[in-house]
Amino acid sequence: MSDETRIRAAWQADRPYLLAVAAGMLGRSVDAEDVVQEAFARLAEVGPARIDDLRGWLIVVTRRLCLDRLRAAETRRTTATATPPEAAPAAGADPLGADPADRLTLDDEVRRALTVLLDRLSPAERTSFVLHDVFGFPFDAVAELVGRTPGACRQLARRARLSLGAPEPARRAAPVPAESAALADRFIAACAGGDVGALVGLLDPAADGLAIVLGLGAPAETHGVPAVAERAIAFFGPAAGVTLAPFALEGHAGVLARRGDAVVAVIRLDERAGRIRHLHAIALPLFPA
User: Residue ranges of the RNA polymerase sigma-70 region domain (predicted)?
Assistant: First the structure.
């Protein structure tokens, strides 16, 4: 199959979904159309023969382009630049001099810009927006994690998009308490080191766990400290091939699991008296059952 044929097939099959992703992040269909066209232009430049998963590649590039647009909009809103016209980057150029398709993770500058944007949201808006619009979790999964209905999460994400387009920030997100953040860090360290003993020490005596792989049937429930610790190491330890990072879930401790550039699971850590009482994980289908 020629490159042109593969690109045409991807355009027909994946463009509607990419438009929905971009419109959800940017809030304007005309901007979404521009971003999706740019993503396909980059695909043509790279060549589909060099990419194993065209749909996944297009989704990553589309989201990165949307984040770049959000960052640029925030910079224009908050910064009065003295850069002379001849020193300004060319229209459409990446101000960092790097193609979003070549960045497997957000660099520090993009993270800072995105943090500025997300700080304008309430914890509930931020969680629904990031999990759904940025990381691609369906609203049913977001609802399961945060204890709300899918409709409520959908409305929170919509409010987040509107807030990001507002001229002034309305509120600042509440930080995760230091004790909860430290617990998440210790959980990550124990899993990364495959240290079942350290993980046992973090668990409440009555700890239990729930793991859901979307689309793969009934959730797996685990009860008791040894079983929860062993299951957590199996899912998120060294052999799982994932990288863990802390993530705030409506002001509570959470952890993201990444495989390469993709977020494959989100973990909520419910604590009691400084220990993990309940571990709730939701994974996308590409995560092993």
Answer: 13-73
